[in-house]
Amino acid sequence: MTPLPPQPLSPLDGRYRAQVAGLGDTLSEAGLNKARVHVEVEWLVYLTQHALLGGAPIADEQVAALREWAAGFGQAEIDELAETERTTQHDVKAVEYLVRGQLERQGLSHLAELTHVCCTSEDINNLSYALTVKQAIADVWRPRFEKVIGELARQAEQYRELPMMSRTHGQPATPTTLGKELAVFVHRLERQLNQIDDIEYLGKFSGATGTFAAHLAADPDTDWTRVSQEFVEGLGLDWNPLTTQIESHDWQSELYTRIAHANRILHNLATDIWSYISIGYFRQIPVAGATGSSTMPHKVNPIRFENAEANLELSNAILDSLAATLVTSRWQRDLTDSSAQRNIGVGLGHSVLALDNILKGLGQIDAAPEVLAADLDANWEVLGEAIQTVIRAEVTAGRSTIADPYAVLKELTRDRRIGQAELVEFVEGLEIGNAAKQRLLALTPATYIGDAVRLLDFLQR
Questions:
Q1: Where does CATH 1.20.200.10 sit in the chain?
Q2: Rounded CA gap, 149 and 130, in Å?
Q3: Among 18, 148, 170, 220, which residue's Cβ finds the most Cβ atoms within 10 Å?
Q4: pLDDT tens digits, residue range 196-211?
Q5: What is the mean pLDDT of residues 346-367?
Q6: Nearest alpha-carbon partner for 19 in 293, 359, 320, 365
Q7: What share of the chain is helix, strand, coil (3-state, %, to 5)?
Q8: Is residue 390 over pLDDT 80?
Q9: Cα dihedral: 310, 314, 319, 321 (round 10)
Q10: How far apart are CA 274 and CA 283, in angstroms?
Q11: Nearest to 230 by CA among 242, 220, 219, 238
């Protein structure tokens, strides 16, 4: 059999490449190296601007040229790094040599020894990962997450007053509204987004074991902790003063745990919508030209929600592993985090793919009010809760002597389908006050929705 030409192994780099392409700008190997170059250049500029370790300020146009080169990191630099790493067998050292080469091209060879000075590889790596993950969340994951919340909120408002039979334990239960049930997911997801927004993106910049030993050996008169804090915060990150060789990755674990939690809520949403489609509460809007089944032409399958489920599970498999792995490093440093962190994009990629599927799926469904109404009308027994609760209040108020109201309604409604006529007859025969009786006689399954409509107002606070 003739072998295929080289193919992407991951579907994120194959079938779904276009949908997750934005993550490649930051969380690919090239994206990581671009961030490394940025950090190395900014450190060198900082040293010259503050005349540290023998450096002296360089012309503004030289600084601008260095930063422009770093920002324009592209295929030429990717290729050069790959060639250099074949010799160095060390990715960060290859980046150092790349920066040195640019200094030579700009006539700044006298600054070459300031490149990567006082840095362990992890000083560059931890800042680069923090920058790339922060950008990936802000530019790619978060906007999609917000769009899903926004569409859910729009539909919650659209269906705010549409009565719907609840299903507790899969059985008919006290009615609600479709809008309120969607609003529950909006509220849950917004809470997670607020917590994700509160994450600190921490960085360390303190040398081989986090002690500034080399820094003080070279220049004992400089306040290197102040320099470190100023440099890290100048990159838009939060400074971590107490670390080993590595930044402890607790912020990463917190972030991935919270995204995984958000994924699980989305998974719950996908299974609920799938189930509502299954019982006809939602109609699917056929997509022109699309095939639902290869053999059954009548079918429109809820594939968007099924695909979302699978991708959320894959995302969490990676994110949960990262959250567990990254918080442990033997003594002052081991390399377990190195391979693990290269899969951050995979974990976020499957979440992004799921968000796209959910958003498309939500755009391809419409509520079926006639199905919802018919289901409510077929389940008058759900008013048993209201009746027995009213009787209890009437007994307490001295307007009734009915013994054990719950048992009375259990006998009437349990494992039985009863209609409006039977309930009306039952209520009319109750020994309760007239006002309570009239309230019960006015109730229908479609109006027994409590404060469901008003509860949506809490989304606007």
A1: 122-289+298-369
A2: 26
A3: 148
A4: 999 999 999 999 999 9
A5: 97
A6: 359
A7: 65, 5, 30
A8: yes
A9: 140
A10: 11
A11: 238
Q: Which two tokens stand for residue 209?
A: 């074991």
CA 246 from chain centre, in angstroms, equals 26
pTM of the predicted protein model: 0.93
Which pair of structure tokens corresponds to residue 161?
Answer: 């007053």
pLDDT of residue 410: 81
The residue behind tokens 């109404």 is: 373
Residue 60 has, within 13 A of its CA and on its CB side, a CA count of 0
Residues whose CB falls within 8 Å of the CB of residue 1, separated by 6 or more in sequence, listed in order: none
CB 163 within 8 A of CB 446: yes
Cβ-in-10-Å burial (0-12, 13-18, 19+) of 422 comes to middle
Write out the CATH class of domain 19-119.
mainly alpha
Domain 380-444 part of CATH 3.30.365.10: no
- Which residue type does 128 have? S
Write out the two tokens for 199: 């994450």
- pLDDT score of 292: 56
Question: Would you mind telling me the total number of residues written for the chain in this entry?
Answer: 461
Q: Distance (Å, rounded) from C-alpha 428 to C-alpha 210?
A: 80
Q: What is the CATH class of 122-289+298-369?
A: mainly alpha
CB 240 within 8 A of CB 202: yes
* Residues assigned a catalytic role: 169, 293
